[in-house]
Structures are given as C-alpha cells and as structure tokens.
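Please produce the structure of this protein holding magnesium ion.
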Amino acid sequence: MRRVVGLSGVTKEYAGGVTALREVDLDILEGELVGIVGPSGSGKSTLLHIIGTLDRPTSGAVEIAGFDVAALSDRELSTLRARHVGFVFQAFHLVPGVSALDNVAEGLLYSGLPRAVRRRRAADALERVGLADRARHRPHELSGGQKQRVAIARAVVGDPELLLADEPTGALDSASGASVMELLRDLGASGSTVAVITHDTEIADQLPRRVRLRDGAVAEDVTGSVTGGVTEDGAGAGDGAPPAVRDSVPHDVGAGA
Ligand code: ADP
Ligand code: MG
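Below is the modeled complex.
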C-alpha cells in the first residue's frame, strides 16, 4: 500500500515555549481510516494541521501524497492542499446564505474546472452523502448533521487522497454524530484515506486504527477494533484476540511535561 502520510521526528514548538508535538513518527497508508485521540491540549489539532500542510513543523520531516513538504513554497503547498487534501471541521465552516450545492462546489474553486462542471460534481457529491434532496437549502435551513454532511461533500468533491476531520461530531447530537461517522467509515471503505480527531471514546473504539497522543507524543498506535467488530481486512473479528499494537511507544515518552 502506498504511503499517503509520512511523519518522522516531527516536533512543533509554538511561540511562548509550548511544545505541542514531540518527535512524532506516523505513517498512514492509502485507504486507512485512522482515529486520532487524546485529551484536550495533547496536540491533536496541531498534528492534523501539520498533516494537512496548514502548518509546518519546527523540526522533522513531513511527506504528504509523496511530496516533501519542506521542499515546497507556501504557494506550492496551497496547490498541494487544493489537489490532495480535504478538510472537515467541528464548526462546519459553510458559507452562510449560499445553497448546499454552491457550498460544495466551493471545494472545486481552485480546480480550474468550469462552473457548470463544478456544480455537476457538487451534485454528485451531495448525492454521495445522502443529501441530493437538500441541494437548494441554505445552511440555516439544515440540521447540524446535514450541515456536516455538506461540509464532508465539499471536502471530498475534488476526490482528495486524504480527508482530515477535526472533531467532526463535536457539535452534533449523538445520533447525527454516529451517522456522520458512518459516512466517514463508508468513505474509508470505498478507498479514501481518512484521519479523524475525536475525543469520543465510543466513536474512537469503532475505528480500525487509533493513534493516541499524550503531551504531544504518540503514546499508543493500535490496529484492530476494541469492540470486537470486523475490521476492514477481517482481522480482529470477534475472536477475543487482543488488538495488535504496532509502533508501540513506551508510555513515559511525555515525561517532563
Ligand atoms: P488538542 O487539539 O489536542 O486539544 P492542540 O494541538 O490544539 O491540542 O494544542 C496543543 C498545545 O499547543 C496546547 O498546549 C495548546 O495550548 C498549544 N497551542 C495550540 N495552538 C497554539 C498556537 N497557535 N500558539 C501557541 N500555542 C498553541
Ligand atoms: Mg483540537
């Protein structure tokens, strides 16, 4: 499997002396669905920003979709993002007063495609998230769960190699949250590579792989469903076997924080 994300020795220090990430090594392969979990302040959003090339590390190497991020200018990075990465945020970030269809078409703004093609692809993407019948609705006419589906359609309309979501269920009731997660799982099952931050352990436990951060370091990287559900490759099915731990890092790596 091709590597979509490759981080090695990634450290991020913010002004003011905060070390948000410490020597993080993380590979994400094509088609993986990875949950990024950990307490508030453990560095999850920082990690997602670096994977999404919205921010650069203080030190360490970042490779996204085969590109060495350090070798690219800021301008080249925005092109890389537009072509290869889709983002979903807790607060949806839809454009108010604009139809669902046009919000989704926005995801193709820098694609160079003509407007009619953008709108046609947007309609297809809305169909994929089950909202074909809401294309003309504006954000304030949609429920929270529907808004997040629109945001996901916008994120995937350009067929990005990588879909990144930061607490996509954080503003939703549990039923809508579960259905948004199901949608992300469907996208994962159909070959998209997805990394999703969640503080909801119930949601996280259902993901095929979980990377746990503590004090900016990877404390645990576990593949296999803890609920005994069948993972994508059939491993970890309810046979009572413990989930496989890979790249496991001693838990004291965050010492000193
Ligand atoms: P999480 O998403 O897990 O809650 P964050 O990545 O947002 O964690 O933050 C990790 C640490 O970095 C926290 O201590 C936070 O206060 C700090 N931090 C995050 N963003 C900034 C910033 N722009 N400037 C300074 N410190 C920041
Ligand atoms: Mg965060």
